[in-house]
Design goal:
single chain; 485 residues; 13 strands; binds glutamic acid
Length: 485
Amino acid sequence: MSVRVRFAPSPTGYLHVGGARTALFNYLFAKKHQGAFILRVEDTDQDRNQEQALIPLLNSLKWLGLDWDEGVTIQEKLIKSKGPYAPYRQKERLSIYKEKALALIKKDKAYYCFMSHEEESEQKQKAIKAGRSFRVFSPYRNWTLKSAEEKIQQGQKFCIRFKTPEQNQNYPLADLVRGNLSFPSDSLGDFILIRSDGFPVYNFSCAVDDSLMKISHIFRGEEHLSNTVKQQLIQKALGFSAPQAGHLSIILDKDKKKLSKRSGSESVQHYKKEGYLPSALINFLSLLGWNPKTEKEFFYKKELIESFNIEGLNSSSAVFDEDKLLWLNEEHIKSLSEEELAQALMPFMKNFQTEISELKRLIPALRSGFKTLKQSAQILNLFLEGGFEVKESALEVLGWPSSKKLLESWLDFLKKASKDYLTLEEFKNFQKAVQKERAIKGKEFFMPLRCALMGQPEGVEIKLLVTLLSRDKLIKRAETALKQT
Ligand code: GLU
């Protein structure tokens, strides 16, 4: 059997890191088994669907490098479906769901129901009062098709409900991650397949599409466990085979609460903006609920594909540890060549007319302090044209009586220097000279000098600054700072 897996987001907002982890595990499994990774868009929930969320969501997946083989794609800003089972947007497949629902009615596995919301909530209230768990009992369950059709002809609104099989035993579920599970037979009730507005509910469209699109395996969050039971019942009733499903562990935040969708900082976009590398985010996400069974934690995507396996998936909750993500990001930044790093940094330098060659000149000396692209760009900016201003925090230091004397000597020294860049040795000679001739040393030397180099008394090492900034820049900066003494 060929492996076919899918990621099936509902465009209700940005791509959450939890969703990205689901996509990643499906992707890795597909690639490992030379299978297909499919992107299906589940957009039939009229209330929750946000059309404008779709393109950013797909772009986040692309940025992560989780390319898909079939499904919804963006071509010249247009959303299209590509692949043998197109369309892959559920909104464009409504006639298929309708046809399948009618087939179930014909087989007496589904029925038209005319219950109002009020009737249903009345039943719910009664169950709550009696301390029973709620499942709906429709008076239309055993109506003949003929009577139901007559009622529809009279213009009565209806939905289509699944005739959940009555059984004494629990519903079994063989889970790829959790082993054999079972669900109480009275936990489901006759759930809706097609709502009164004609749109299918998620469980129905998902079950139909997974079968029609020949999906072989599904990896998704544990919140879908009870959905899987329903989907498998639907597939069985339709005479389809069901994909094998595995439910991933829950992801917790550092306070051990479920990583929610509240602040926006859990989005893939957020990490992109903050200067994380996609390779680092993928590496980090892969370790949430999957154990590579080795001490190694740094993985390239290629290595993840090679080592990913179902046996390593576990059901115990995983903690989203920001510190670990930052560490992995540093490691992935270290692994880039100068050229790759310079390219990755360019989008973060866009406010400054930076040349890539200029970045490549600075990177070797500075890269050991790089943690994120954003923070690296801030460091690099100090060395570029327009990156200098005397900050508020420099004023006190520049006001010291010795600062003026020091900066005058510094300027004098720079103007006499012959080359475009200073050597460390020349700088050390200068340091010795001011110490001897003007008795300026220690913090009276370093702090005002830093203000004249980067506009503030703390930060990047002086030794780096003096050798990486051109003599012209050093002079300009010293003159600006001198005005504030
Ligand atoms: N559209 C569902 C969601 O976003 C898909 C779940 C699934 O079947 O994988 O939660």
